[in-house]
Amino acid sequence: MHIDNLEALNIIKSKLNVGNVTIEKSRNKCSFVVQNFTEIKDVICPIFIQFPLLTSKRLDFQDFYQAVQIKNKKNLSYADKERIISLKNGMNSQREIFKSISINSQINVNPEWFIGFLEGEGTFGIKTGSSMYLQVAQKNTSLDSINAIIAFLTSLESNLPKDNQILPLNVVSTINQKTNVVSLVVSSVDALYYYILPLLDNSKMYTHKEMDFKLWRIALMLKIHGYYYLPEGKKLFLDISDVLNKRYSTGSIENLDTIIVDIFNRYQAILLINSPFSIEDNIPHVDNVRKFRLENKSDLPKTIFIYENGKLIKGSPFNSYSSAHKALGLKSTSNTCNRYLDTNRLYKSKYIFTSTKG
Questions:
Q1: Is 333 found in the same domain as 257?
Q2: What would the 3-class secondary structure string for 289-300 be?
């Protein structure tokens, strides 16, 4: 694991009271390693027997446990040793067979397993500075577990009244043909807030994902309550997107701790403003956005000034978002102006968008 997760590994070592935590500073890596055979046999293996793995790793454990049982014999024959070597050569990255009768129809994802899986294989994301998502990914060799995750997510319940207009949670599945990795994504603001967030709020995380979740949660609250559509809320949202999933101590962001403290302080200040949206109406987020924009239509910028290196670009100012987008070679329906207008943030490291001439 990345060295930022050292505390999580120390917790595991402390709970199990076996093994060692090693640090490779040159690789910014830390590991929890158990090499003592008795500890492997009496402590580690019983855990995975009582709490079976749900992905193709379960097949690796089955082979590993078979090797442990063979090694536990008093006297190993030549055939025993050859069998252990054979098992080793067919595990992990060398595995070619991914089907097992015992793994089928036994996968039951629960909240605790999902949170652990999310910490290892999940992403709290903000895409292109505006849309939000939760993603988990896994090789297509674990299709049974992928389907079980989908079933688990779509079975989540909300506290919404029966007469609500919120759509049910939907999971979008895509596969990268080059890597054979299947990604499961939930991207609806409503689904993230009403279905996913209650699960996350009631769960404990141990890795650096915990802070990612806290930052992502602020961004989600800015969205669902409409603060994102105020200048100060949008600026905070975009600042969160700059550090989300980039918080490693070995990263290039300077004064990161100070930035995160500032984000939390600014969020508390924004909460003192009356919420632009009334989520108590239990209507879809897109309807709240539409309602807000209609009510504040006269306040929306009519003119867009685009500066490059302090100078107005050709054609600026523009009387519509679409014409501004076209001038930059973007689709007229792009969301770029909406994301960057009056945020004092650079688009493509050189463009500034304002509603007034500066």
A1: no
A2: HHHHHHHCHHHC
3-state helix, strand, coil in the chain (%, to 5): 50, 15, 35
- Please give the single-letter amino acid code of residue 144: D
Q: At what angle do helices 231-243 and 256-270 cross, to 10 degrees?
A: 150
Do 178 and 227 sit in the same domain of this protein? yes
For residue 354, list its beta bridge partners: 305
Contacts of 62 (CB under 8 A, 6+ apart): 100, 102
Q: What is the CATH number of the domain that holds 120?
A: 3.10.28.10
For the chain, the distance separating the N- and C-terminal CA atoms, rounded to the nearest angstrom, is 48
pLDDT in tens, 190-199: 999 999 999 9
Least Cα distance to 66 among 56, 78, 80 occurs for 80
pLDDT over 70, % of the chain: 94
> In angstroms, rounded to a whole number, what is the distance separating the alpha carbons of residues 3 and 33?
15
Specify the pLDDT at position 192: 98
pLDDT the model gives residue 106 = 62
Q: Which residue has the tokens 């079980």?
A: 148
Q: How confident is the model at residue 101 (pLDDT cuts 50, 70, 90)?
A: very low
Q: Can you tell me the distance from the alpha carbon of 150 to that of 117, in angstroms, rounded to the nearest whole number?
A: 13
E strand or H helix at 352, and its extent? strand 351-354
Tell me whether residue 279 is in a domain. Answer: no
Q: Rounded to an integer, what distance in angstroms lies between the CA atom of residue 197 and that of residue 333?
A: 30
What single-letter DSSP state applies at residue 303? -
Which two structure tokens, joined as six digits, stand for 81?
Answer: 């040793």
| DSSP state letter for 167 | P
| Max CA distance (Å), the chain | 86
CA–chain centroid gap for 12, Å, is 23
